[in-house]
């Protein structure tokens, strides 16, 4: 396969898990070229080398961050053309999916989002696996254009450094932004207070609470912190104002695909399942043995969450002591 451009968006002082996953995927397919938007520190450059990147295309132009979406798509278009890429990999967040779509228009390319796997086939080209209809179907799709754009879901692969590392060569890219790219200006940004927990859609473990917590997320948060997990919620819990809307998992919330999803006091309505059904291992705690959540649970615990969670917390602490 020809070069694979991997989009690394504002890495800051260290390469994040999402970027490492994309690079691990890319390495399995061909030669990864990192397209880094934002400042490129020496530490990140070294990490890129460790993850098998020999070439980095970097732009830190202010327009990338002062205007919405399109400048990043134009940067990736320049990067893809510069290295004659066959594939561009992006993350699967709402912003990255929009960037992927814009990029596809710019490059006259096929785009596939929500991907969980990519295979490069000499005859069939780029084959992508994705999950649809709340994860109840796996669909194989192929890109038929000369270059493909694929937005990959988080947690599809364990990040793994390449066996040997070498310093990645860095080339600065000056993007001639179009007039169209500068039409939606970002007026202000306000950072959310950091919770210290992992980002919900990227977390390896999620502990989610529903109406059953009855306003008290304490045990859910305590278990999450013990496991280094993100805290999720059903819509009933977010609508009640017990937790921020950004924690909502489901059809109208976030889609998560962690290694472990612990569902607590959630009935398992179809709209909730839509956002978590592809989790690798699902544990459900619910006092109603007939609750639909048990249909998708790998391990079901019938009981009062205010009894079950403290017992689990105590046992984990005891085993770690
Ligand atoms: C268009 C649309 C979009 C939607 N989008 C979403 C979405 O994105 N995400 C989402 O979650 N929902 C969504 N919903 C709402 C969804 O249909 C359900 O209403 C919601 O998921 C229910 O939340 P819940 O399971 O927490 O509450 P309930 O259905 O009320 O279930 C609460 C559960 O807690 C159990 N329980 C109660 N007390 C305890 C206890 N002490 N210990 C253990 N178990 C206990 C009960 O047995 C019950 O099973 C959407 C609905 C619509 C119409």
TrEMBL record:
SUPFAM superfamilies: Adenine nucleotide alpha hydrolases-like, DHS-like NAD/FAD-binding domain. Gene3D superfamilies: HUPs (3.40.50.620), TPP-binding domain (3.40.50.1220). Residues 4-186 form the Electron transfer flavoprotein alpha/beta-subunit N-terminal domain. Its cofactor is FAD. Belongs to the ETF alpha-subunit/FixB family. The electron transfer flavoprotein serves as a specific electron acceptor for other dehydrogenases. It transfers the electrons to the main respiratory chain via ETF-ubiquinone oxidoreductase (ETF dehydrogenase). Heterodimer of an alpha and a beta subunit. This is Electron transfer flavoprotein alpha subunit. It comes from Arthrobacter russicus.
């Amino acid at each position: 396969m020809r070069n694979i451009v991997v989009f690394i968006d504002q890495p800051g002082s260290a390469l994040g898990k999402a970027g490492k996953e994309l690079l691990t995927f890319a390495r399995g397919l061909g030669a990864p070229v990192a397209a880094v938007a934002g400042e490129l520190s020496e530490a990140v450059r070294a990490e890129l080398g460790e993850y098998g990147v020999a070439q980095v295309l970097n732009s830190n132009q202010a327009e990338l961050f002062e205007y919405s979406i399109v400048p990043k798509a134009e940067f990736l278009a320049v990067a893809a053309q510069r290295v004659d890429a066959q594939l561009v990999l992006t993350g699967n967040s709402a912003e990255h999916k929009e960037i992927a779509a814009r990029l596809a228009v710019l490059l006259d390319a096929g785009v596939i989002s929500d991907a969980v796997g990519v295979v490069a086939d000499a005859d069939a080209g780029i084959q992508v696996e994705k999950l649809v209809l709340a994860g109840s179907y796996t669909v194989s799709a192929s890109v038929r254009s000369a270059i493909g754009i694929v937005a990959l879901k988080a947690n599809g692969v364990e990040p793994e450094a390449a066996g040997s590392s070498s310093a990645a060569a860095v080339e600065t890219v000056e993007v001639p932004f179009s007039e169209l790219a500068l039409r939606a200006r970002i007026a202000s940004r306000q950072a959310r207070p950091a919770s210290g927990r992992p980002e919900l859609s990227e977390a390896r473990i999620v502990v989610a609470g529903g109406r059953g917590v009855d306003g008290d997320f304490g045990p859910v948060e305590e278990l999450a912190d013990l496991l280094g997990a993100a805290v999720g919620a059903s819509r009933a819990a977010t609508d009640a104002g017990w937790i921020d809307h950004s924690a909502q998992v489901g059809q109208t919330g976030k889609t998560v695909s962690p290694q472990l999803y612990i569902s607590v006091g959630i009935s398992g309505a179809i709209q909730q399942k839509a956002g978590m059904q592809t989790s690798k291992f699902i544990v459900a705690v619910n006092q109603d043995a007939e609750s639909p959540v048990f249909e998708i649970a790998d391990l079901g615990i019938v009981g009062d969450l205010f009894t079950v969670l403290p017992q689990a917390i105590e046992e984990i602490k005891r085993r770690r002591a």
